[in-house]
Structures are given as C-alpha cells and as structure tokens.
Specification:
54% strand
C-alpha cells in the first residue's frame, strides 16, 4: 500500500456567511485512490486526472457543490 497526502477542497455557494471554499488535509494509505474516493462519494461522476508529477486529482460535482481530491504520494 502507498501513503498519500490527500487535500480535499470543497467549493459551495457562499450563503449564510459560510466560506465558499473549505480545505482539509489528511494522510491516507491505499492501493487505489479512485476506489478510496468511490467508497466516500456514492453520487456523481468522478473525473480523474494524473498530472506529470504523479499527483492524482479526482473531482466531481454534487449538486451545487464541487469537490476536488488531490493525492500526492509521500
């Protein structure tokens, strides 16, 4: 299994004084980042991009919210 730094960036409509962007950082151990996100996000279509530096970016739109998961191997 590989260990990744996972940055979760959630964008939502700015209402009720909430910040339009919420960011979390986690450490995750998994063999398959896409399967890991599918276990969390049951709705929406995942768009997967692998950047030249090896970063795996998984994004999806759920209603008015946009979520981006960025995996960087430790």
């Amino acid at each position: 299994m590989k260990t990744y730094e996972l940055i979760i960036e959630r964008r939502q409509p700015p209402c009720g004084g909430k910040s339009p962007k919420v960011v979390q950082v986690q450490t995750v151990t998994t063999d398959d980042p896409v399967a890991h996100i599918r276990s969390i996000e049951k709705d929406g279509e995942l768009q997967v991009t692998v950047k030249p530096d090896g970063e795996i970016v998984i994004s999806l739109d759920v209603g008015a919210k946009q979520i981006k998961y960025s995996f960087t191997e430790d």
